[in-house]
Write a sequence for this structure.
């Protein structure tokens, strides 16, 4: 069976030149690479370029385009147009071309996979397969089909046992504001150095696994052993400096460490610390999801990723965030990306971060569904009465409010704890937002 159909390709191109509306009937199915014949690729590229500039395309305009691009084949343009009687069945022809193109990609992928070797061969193979599946478009849904999907979702929500719509973050106030982590979302956890952003993201993964939702931690900053030391300290309440250096462990601390180790080892929690390129990270995410049905992925963190090639750093970051958002949506998972903030806030009197403090903020701010920014007043003001507390600033939430959630910083055991009482009061001369859960309750029987 042939891996291409010259006749189908010609019929599509001829139909588009006869009637420009035919192009829009098939543009969602086809790309330049789907055409096997190089002449057909040049013609489709010309049509795509003219359509993008809202210019008409017919035999004359396409011939002029090809002539200006020094691609020739103008005589062939007239030949195709003359041999195409109508635009009938153009969608069917496009489906044939798309199917043939998919077959060629599968064969090419198989050939490339058979040549792989070494310890990264499985990752590379997954990346190759992922690049194929990402090119397949879904079918457009009718209003009736969309309503049926929503009805199923509403039914599933009424049947759930938890009061949280998604996977719980593990901090009650945060869950109340966000309804938990939702499938298909890209969540950003950002902060300046020493704010605890990596610890915060890792603890979310731990909470997810403890609640029975498999979580995947991709640590680009520290090896798995260091991740485990932090988790053991958090679960056991044994000081991190003891867990990090076994010589400092007291006799009574060993049983707590052993219990924590047993508990953590039984969790649906998975780790990677050896993938840095975007495509390999995406492949590993797909691989682990296929094997363990992961619901949450933490990537710690953006600065340590090897950026894809692009004209600017902003465009490279844009490709990263859009690919991560796409894989979250495709797999129905939540991806949490940890990111550094720029130094701009250091020159402000109020050093609480805002969205513009994100590095390459345009792409990240646009693609992220939720943006958390961590702030600790004691870091900037050593005498602060809020020592031992952090603020999780919800600077963006596509489907919910922005607010602030207070947390206690138990860094000696590598953990954040809930702070239902809110933040300690600041001096009367300084007014700072209290945030969610931090408002003082009115006392009954007293005037305001």
């Amino acid at each position: 069976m042939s891996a291409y159909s010259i006749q189908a390709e010609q019929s599509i191109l001829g139909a588009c030149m006869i009637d420009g509306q035919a192009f829009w009937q098939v543009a969602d199915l086809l790309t330049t690479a789907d055409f096997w014949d190089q002449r057909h690729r040049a013609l489709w590229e010309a049509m795509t370029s003219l359509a993008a500039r809202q210019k008409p395309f017919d035999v004359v305009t396409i011939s002029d385009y090809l002539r200006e691009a020094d691609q020739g084949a103008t005589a062939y343009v007239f030949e195709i147009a003359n041999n195409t009687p109508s635009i009938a069945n153009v969608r069917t022809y496009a489906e044939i071309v798309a199917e043939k193109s998919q077959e060629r990609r599968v064969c090419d992928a198989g050939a490339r996979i058979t040549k792989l070797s070494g310890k990264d061969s499985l990752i590379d193979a997954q990346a190759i397969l992922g690049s194929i599946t990402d090119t397949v478009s879904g079918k457009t849904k009718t209003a009736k089909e969309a309503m049926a999907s929503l009805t199923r979702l509403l039914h599933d929500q009424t049947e759930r046992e938890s009061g949280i719509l998604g996977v719980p973050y593990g901090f009650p106030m945060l869950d109340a504001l966000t309804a938990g982590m939702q499938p298909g979302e890209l969540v950003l956890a950002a902060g300046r150095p020493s704010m605890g952003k990596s610890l915060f993201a890792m603890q979310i993964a731990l909470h997810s696994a403890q609640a029975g939702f498999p979580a995947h931690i991709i640590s680009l900053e520290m090896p798995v052993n260091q991740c485990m030391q932090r988790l053991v300290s958090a679960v056991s309440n044994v000081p991190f400096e003891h867990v990090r250096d076994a010589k400092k462990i007291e006799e009574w601390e060993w049983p707590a460490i052993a219990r924590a180790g047993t508990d953590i080892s039984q969790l649906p929690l998975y780790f990677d610390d050896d993938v840095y390129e975007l495509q390999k990270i995406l492949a590993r995410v797909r691989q682990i999801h296929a094997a363990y049905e992961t619901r949450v992925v933490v990537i710690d963190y953006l600065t340590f990723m090897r950026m894809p090639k692009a004209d600017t750093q902003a465009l490279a970051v844009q490709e990263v965030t859009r690919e991560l958002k796409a894989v979250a949506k495709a797999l129905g998972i939540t991806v949490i990306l940890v990111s550094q903030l720029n130094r701009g806030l250091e020159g402000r009197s109020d050093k609480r971060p805002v969205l513009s403090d994100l590095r390459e903020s345009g792409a990240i701010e646009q693609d992220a569904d939720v943006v958390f920014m961590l702030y600790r007043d004691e870091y900037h003001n050593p005498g602060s009465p809020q020592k031992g507390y952090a603020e999780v600033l919800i600077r963006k939430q596509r489907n919910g409010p922005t607010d602030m959630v207070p947390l206690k910083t138990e860094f000696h055991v590598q953990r954040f704890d809930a702070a239902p009482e809110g933040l300690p009061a600041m001096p009367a001369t300084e007014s700072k937002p209290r945030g969610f859960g931090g408002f003082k309750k009115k006392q009954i029987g007293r005037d305001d």
